[in-house]
Amino acid sequence: MSLWDRLRQGLARSRSGWVSQLKKAVAGGRGRIDEELLLELEESLLEADVGLDGAEAILDALREAAAKERPSTADEVLSLIRRLMTDQLSEHRRELHQPPEPPGVILLLGVNGSGKTTTAAKLAAQLGGRGKVILGACDTFRAAASDQLAEWGHRIGVDVVRQEPGSDPAAVAFDTVQAARARGMAWAILDTAGRLQTRTNLMKELEKIHRVVERALGRPADERLLVLDATVGQNGLSQARLFHETVPLTGLVVTKMDGTARGGILWAITRELGLPVKWIGVGEGLEDLQPFDPQAFVDALFAGDGSREVP
Amino acid sequence: MAFERLTERLQEAFRRLSGRGKLSPADVDEALKEVRRALLEADVNFRVVKDLLERIRARAVGEEVLKSLTPAQQVIRIVRDELTALMGGEHAGIQFASRPPTVILLCGLQGSGKTTTAAKLAFRLKQQGRRPHLVAGDLYRPAAVDQLRVLAKQVGVPCHEGQGDPVEVAAQGVEAAAQAGADVVLVDTAGRLQIDSEMMEELRRTRDRIQPHEVLLVLDAMTGQEALNVARTFQEQMELTGLVLTKTDGDARGGAALSALAVTGKPIKFVGVGERIEQLEPFHPDRMASRILGMGDVLSLIERAEAAMDQEDAQRLAERIREADFTLEDFLEQLRQVRKMGPLDELLQMLPGLPAGAGSLKGLQVDERELKRVEAMIQSMTPQERRNPQIIDGSRRRRIAAGSGTQVQDVNRLLKQFEQTRALIRQMGQAGRRIRGGKGRKGWGGLFRGRR
Ligand SMILES: Nc1nc2c(ncn2[C@@H]2O[C@H](COP(=O)(O)OP(=O)(O)O)[C@@H](O)[C@H]2O)c(=O)[nH]1
Ligand SMILES: Nc1nc2c(ncn2[C@@H]2O[C@H](COP(=O)(O)OP(=O)(O)O)[C@@H](O)[C@H]2O)c(=O)[nH]1
Ligand SMILES: [Mg+2]
Ligand SMILES: [Mg+2]
């Protein structure tokens, strides 16, 4: 058998249902948190993109809590770790920040293809649509980016402020804020071009958009949201860090949660940067945006491997 | 994330161990924990990591490492060999059909870069003298067709469009392209989750209708552990012929590529290195191996340096930069050179373990002001200190800071950056020798010689 075949065969083993294994392990007489159990937990966290440091932090917390609470059954161990993980995601306010006076401004940022434009449309629909919201197409770079937003605007019935491809995105942002005010809109939502967080020039452009919005509005944009793809791995932390450094973020939107990715990098992000997750995207339709629910999120993480079938 | 390189960590691990005399297999295990960490941090799927470690261990406990005077280097070599072997030797290009047109289908998750890659491939093929056509097969995402149309116009190739059933649109597009004399037809498709069985079924029907010669999975380099499941499902359902890894221009280490390779066994044919249509490159397994290990894209950096420096500068620098006598003065000179090599952020991304804008190199903005400060600090050092920075202790640092009107932290940072650069140069010297195969050449000298 070739090396590849062997490797593939190994990997093709169906996901082993680690929660059920874990239950067996605890039920099988060990009845406490030993190193082997922690190793199993670590693997499952790694598989959810929590990352090595993130997993260590969570397991340290588990050890500490277990020393006090002394869980004696598998269910108790599991509910303890769930609680710890839920608590960490629940620490910060997740409600939409209400502007002191209209229009409120929402600035969406993120890397390429993470779901900014779709999220802008979803938010526009949820915040009242026609007569309440205006969209600003500040992605003047990607081919047909403003057409994409305009098409959404058309479907929802909201106006989209746009300019020629290649024009200054900060100017579009400025115009959008002005238009929102002139037309008495409650919200202006600014879609921006995707950019990898390491491209300093593009990050400077973002900084300028942020500055110009502040000038037009008399205060910084009310929400500055990083749109993060749930399938992202450890790079998610670098994204959060560098975007946060460029434009101080007010929170995150995690998209593509309808897939099987579990977005585990969120624990590293919230631990280090203390940013709340405000919404999750669960599909490509306008209605597929939900307020973030830490409990459900953690449940999904722990349920992703067939453990639901386990009694 | 602190500046941590696998090499350094391994050296550290072995240093801890070697105090006890002869290395044992258990010692190797200890060191392999560092390898595991590096692979996991790079997003290689943990199942793939497990498997790789087993193989690496089998080789590492062999004589070569245990008896070696430089066990860290030996382990690194084994790890890199294994990774490079997994990623395939030769660059695999497009397999053209014996009877044109060659039909290429692009598929993948939402937002991974399919449409952009289709246009990039068209651009590349056109430059090679072929007559590629594009087919806009994404009828779901708003303005996806417009996007491809705009890109096709930039490239200067025809784009075939249609409405209704995506399978029909793809089939008719391929037909129309063939009629119009295309020798390659690139079919863009809508993004889809691998667990969306209806959409996957549609993709299979598209494939069955157009009978593509190449089915490429377009994968985002930032993807995490899911890369394995994504690649596996697409492979099972679509019988892929290859992979394209996009968005490698950032600081993602790209372990997803390894996961995808591991479950599909298909070659990575191209990598996306930016948003513009010309930013697509052939895949280099050795570079990817270094990158995944956090050792930086040293070879790309060397190429960039070669392209940017003129011969004379390069010679001069090469002469002065020798592992043993690379001094702080050379460092200053090098900073001046780096400024000429292009956008600094792009360069910094290629440096080992240094995500640009993060970590310790963040302060290294090579602008005039920073250069002046570095200059001032170096000038406040004694000649002895410049040659032997190790001797610069706390009180010397305070003196240098005072003398140059800077803070002790600035001096600390400078010394750290200097050390990093020195380590990098050492690596470049090794990489250069290995790749170009020049015997007896040293450091950058061998690299720059004989090039225009
Ligand atoms: N399945 C799924 N797809 C999404 C979600 N959000 C966005 N997308 C898709 O991801 C792709 C990229 O989205 P887009 O909004 O254009 O990303 P942008 O480049 O950040 O503006 C599109 O195909 C969207 O339909 C989500 O929550 N779930
Ligand atoms: N930085 C960078 N961006 C890329 C690359 N390839 C694609 N993109 C960007 O990723 C986003 C999604 O690309 P697109 O082709 O629309 O993805 P699709 O939904 O799979 O068709 C766009 O903003 C592209 O400009 C790449 O190699 N580097
Ligand atoms: Mg967009
Ligand atoms: Mg597309």
Describe the structure.
- The complex is a heterodimer of chains A (311) and B (452).
- Chain A has 311 residues and is α/β, with parallel strands linked by helices.
- In chain A, helix 3 (35-47) packs across helix 4 and helix 10 runs parallel beside helix 11.
- Chain A has twelve helices and eight strands.
- Chain B is of the alpha/beta class and 452 residues long.
- Chain B folds into three domains: 4-86, SRP54, nucleotide-binding domain (Four Helix Bundle (Hemerythrin (Met), subunit A), Up-down Bundle), CATH 1.20.120.140; 102-300, Rossmann fold (3-Layer(aba) Sandwich); 310-450, Signal recognition particle, SRP54 subunit, M-domain (434 Repressor (Amino-terminal Domain)).
- Chain B has an eight-stranded mixed sheet, with helices on both faces.
- In chain B, strand 6 (242-246), helix 11 (255-264) and strand 7 (268-272) form a beta-alpha-beta unit.
- Chain B is globular.
- Bound molecules: guanosine-5'-diphosphate (GDP) (2 copies) and magnesium ion (MG) (2 copies).
